[in-house]
Amino acid sequence: MNRRTLEKGGPLWRLWSTAPAEAAGGAAEAPTGASNRPSPIPLVGVPHSQQRDSAQLSQRDRTCFSSSCAMLLEALKPGTLPGANCDDQYLAVVQRYGDTTDANTQLQALAHYGVTARLVQTADFELIEEQIARGIPVPCGYIHRGPIDRPTGTGHWLIVYGHTPTHLVVNDPLGGAGSAQRCHH
Question: What pTM does this model have?
Answer without folding.
Answer: 0.73
